[in-house]
Design a protein that fits this description.
16 helices, mainly alpha
Amino acid sequence: MVLNYIWIAFFLLAAVCALIQVIFYGNTTVLTDIINSTFDSSKTAFEISLGLTGVLSLWMGIMKIGEMGGVVNALARLLSPVFNKLFPDIPKGHPVFGNIFMNIAANMLGLDNAATPLGLKAMEGLQEINVKKNPQNATVASNPMIMFLVLNTSGLTIIPVSIMVYRAQLGAANPTDIFVPILIATFFSTLSGIIITSLYQKINLFQPVLLATLGGMCALVAAIIWGFSKLDKETMDTVSTLIANVILFGIIIAFIIAGMRKKVNVYESFIDGAKEGFTTAVRIIPYLVAILVAIGVFRASGGMDLLIQGINRIFELMGCSTDTTFYILAVYFGSVGIKNTRHAVQAGLLTDICGVLAAIFIAYVFFG
């Protein structure tokens, strides 16, 4: 329901802003800009979906091999002690735990293209559980779906490969100088997301297993920061990219070998998964159109400029960022037909606020 109100608000606020521009500023072209933005945004939504099609087909094909080869089930059993506490509504040892881990791991490595299809695969598994438990409310987001979505919007990034590559392409003097700030900021964002969502869902975070896991995460982050602080900029860039690529390609090879050991027809399994990826890419088009057109209209009316000007100083100070909550909501929930998002928007936006505040403080420390 919250997303419904936000979507309506974008259009109504755009109308008010357009009226003000026409009456007080004599800007008679604003309505033309708004209408043009609807067409441009619709085209952009389709292009995004089209761009995702190949990647979705690839990684869902790889995941299908992993499922048939037993790797996903093995990961699920390994992670059950922790994930059963964080996702108590998911049956113990369910294969979706493996999918969730693969998505989180891809996000931590900053592999955006791989993370999205893996996340959509996990969301499909969560929806299957949701349908079985609540067949009459299959369009209502479940607690595990919301927790998973918040973990995505919080964007824990250990090795920000994509961001460093973009910075290098744009001519940044030191493309890797955001490595540690991003790691710290996204860690606090993820930690706050877990706490906020747990409060909504009444999950006890003081359970020994969860405390040990969160403590281990803190230790791991500290160790990574210490280790990379010993490297010079060029070495850090090389090592980060190498680690991410080795892990990513290693996953593909490991899945194929596991499929061979199980005597699975690896090629046919890949094709079956790739077909699912193509179908998913098509299914999310309406949801992307809806959210991007609403934002486009708000931007074309001048409302977005007013909003950005009001908080421009804050964004200038930010050295890090998280995934766009509304984009994640539209893509992930849209892929499985979820209409009632419950507390997902509130939890996601509160997590974003915590991430922004952490980023501002860290930006001051490192670049102020």
